[in-house]
Every structure is written in C-alpha cells, then in structure tokens.
Amino acid sequence: MEIKEACLSYSIVSLVYQITIITIMYLCNISPISSKSITTFLMVFIPLSMIGCYVLIKLLHSKVSSIKKRKDSFSEVMLLVFTLASFLAGSVLFHVVSILLGAPLIENVEETFSLSMLCSALTVVPLFITHDGRWDDFLSYLPETTYVQDSLSDCIKMVSAFTVIGAWAGAFPIPLDWDRDWQTWPITCCIGALSGQIVGLCFSILSCAGIIPSSPPNWKNKIT
C-alpha cells in the first residue's frame, strides 16, 4: 500500500466509523445536541474514537511499505501508556486555551474539560500515534508544511486543523439571544469540532482522489 492509498483509507474508514458511532448513539437517544445527553455522548464517543483511531493507524502502518518501524520504537503497551498521557496533556492544553478564549473559569468546569477531551482525542491522539509515540518527532513536526498526500501524518494534521477551526467557530452561536437548548455550553463547540473533523476527512478524501488540490497553489513556497 502506498502513502496516498493509506491517506485515502484512513479518511474513508474514519469518516464512516465516526458517522456510524454518532448515528447509533443518536438512535439510542444520546444526542450531541441536547444538554441532557451531551456529557454521556462525549464519555462514550471519546474512548470509541480513540480506540478506532489507534487500531486503524497501527494497521495502516503495517500495510504501508514506505513506513519502516524504528529500532527504538516503543512496545505496544508503552505506546498505549504514552498515548493516554498525550491525550491527558492535550486535554489540559485545550482546557487552558478554552479559558483564555472566553470559556468559564470556575463554572462549567466539567463541560469545558469534556470539550477539551474531545478536541484532544480528535487531534493530539491520532497525530501522536502516527509518530509512534515519539514526543520529539511529534512536536517538531507540528509547524512543518502540510501537504495531504505526502504522508499519513500530513493527512491527519490537515484533518486536525479543520477540527480545531470547527470547535472555535462553534462558539459563535452561543451568545445569540435565541434561548435554545443546543446553545448550552459546550454543545455548539462540540458540534463544531465533530463537523470540522468530518469536513476535514471529506477534504482529504477528495484530495487523495485527485478531485481537488491537496494544498493551495505554492503552499510550500509561501510557508517555507
């Protein structure tokens, strides 16, 4: 399997997997747009998303011929431990950023941290796993140029960017004086993150299929 095929497979499987989880939970009256069930939704969706992500990325790594396992790679147990550590670290980071961007400091702490865990599960975890748990590779890679078809890491980073933007954009309807249940914090941000993830995966699919450019013209030259 080549890199392009791996990126396409990751995007399609992730898209179908996440939509399936959301649909099943919705049919079970665990809706992400209800203040009564948003916490339950996140507590179920987040671990399922992380498990699916871990299995899928490890499977793709074993199938892609150009990805060679490093001699100093962690064992599967250690990788799981460090993945959980990265998830918690990412959750704390997103929580701090959420507060800096206007989330309640003292009130709704549980809700804010739930949103932070969702963002961490959808962004930090897949990026960390695809780098085999190497903190140095993971952190040094983040500011580099993104080109969807270059590597699985680039594909995941692009999807993660859409997720973060979606979560940020989701905050805009909250202050509107509509008095709707779905405006309760942090429902719209969670929906924004999930929507951003889906849009990012669709973008990746279309890019890998050659329907749209995998990056803006002269992206690399402009950034580097």
UniProtKB/TrEMBL annotation:
Topology class, membrane: Multi-pass membrane protein
Superkingdom of origin: Eukaryota
Record-linked InterPro entries: GPI_biosynthesis_protein_Pig-F
Gene Ontology cellular-component terms listed: endoplasmic reticulum membrane
Any one GO biological process: GPI anchor biosynthetic process
Record-annotated membrane-spanning stretches: 7-26, 38-57, 77-101, 113-130, 151-172, 184-212
Keyword DNA-binding appears in the UniProt entry: no
Pathway stated in the Swiss-Prot or TrEMBL entry: Glycolipid biosynthesis; glycosylphosphatidylinositol-anchor biosynthesis
Pfam family, one: PIG-F
Compartments, as annotated in UniProt: Endoplasmic reticulum membrane
Alphabetized UniProt keyword annotations: Endoplasmic reticulum, GPI-anchor biosynthesis, Membrane, Transmembrane, Transmembrane helix
UniProt main location, coarse: endoplasmic reticulum
Protein name: Phosphatidylinositol-glycan biosynthesis class F protein
Organism: Clytia hemisphaerica
Lineage, top ranks: Eukaryota, Metazoa, Cnidaria, Hydrozoa, Hydroidolina
